[in-house]
Amino acid sequence: MSKVGTPTDNAIIEALNGWIKEELYLDFGLETAEDVPKLLDEYVYYFNNRRPAAALGYKSPVQYKTELGF
Description:
flat
């Protein structure tokens, strides 16, 4: 591990944060910082309930877990 706050120590989280920021701007119409809390709630719902994931057989995470009986 290197110094505290070094992005390379958290490469996966940094990539996810960048991806979320890009999708909030491009797909959800982020315009100002005041929009962020509402858009994050919408994005989390979308990510868990609507977004088809290739690794899950193009099902949403909620749909996949429901089919497994969770």
